Amino acid sequence: MNIKELAIIGGGPAGLTAGLYAARAALDTVLFERGMPGGQAAATERIENYPGFPEGIDGPELSMKMSDQAQRFGCEFIYSGVDSLERDEKGFKITYGDEELLAKTVILATGAKPKFLGVKGEKEFHGRGVSYCATCDGAFFRDGTLAVIGGGDAAVEEAMFLTKFAAKVYIVHRRGELRATKVLQQRAFDNPKIEPVWHSVLEEVKGDQKVEGVIVKDVRSEEKQELKVDGVFIYVGTEANSDLLQNMVELDQSGYVIAQEDTATGIPGLFVVGDLRKKELRQVVTAAADGAVAVTQAEKYLSALK
User: Fold this and answer.
1) Of 6, 46, 79, 166, which is the most buried if we count CB atoms within 10 A?
2) Catalytic residue among 28, 58, 83, 133
3) Where exactly are the structural domains of the chain?
4) Under CATH, which number does the domain 2-113+238-305 receive?
């Protein structure tokens, strides 16, 4: 069986930074990524708060720069999902497809995924007008009318991105004000294509072969109204991709791993970084910091094994 000093599972900013630091530390490292490197950052149209890019940078471009940098220093990439992770007397057994690998230490960087609302029509029209990624699907709705559900940074950023294609974008939010940062709010209010729908929640997605409208309910009066839209983009939070860790480590009610600030878990040699870790702030910069911290801890752990 192939044996590595370190396996990193997940290729978002946290995993890619860990790969960079591990490769520069001359650790025999492999990084697993099941799709495009970058995680949620790669699905973000513009990142303006990552240091070193005063004009901002496209999420996919930043992700590829991080990936290229890690690989330039010698981090091996395996483009595959991981099916299982098991504690082994010699480390951790990783199964992917028909293959297995043994790692002496593991950094989990599997991130989080969008939450589903569970309303009528959401599942049925997923991929036929219901989306969770404006960067991925916005161009399909050129000159259309769209609804964005949510009021945080992600919802407002993606709503503004969608105005590049759509003629009109509703922002449907359960409160009377947005939760997004003030600078993002102001940009949204200054955009003539954006119209807020306050104190409202999504009740139903309607259509025949594709989305044709949504029913929203006023949370104060219970009154319902239909908005004629061609697509719905849902941003109501995320939940952790922690399936590999079920019954292994402590999780909170949303599946996020409860770990130390040094990214250590209750299992020696297993570290958790980025959006997967229960933390106050989930940003590209904090994910990158986690990746760097985890590698220093992994190095200490490996040194103690010798």
Assistant:
1) 6
2) 133
3) 2-113+238-305, 116-234
4) 3.50.50.60
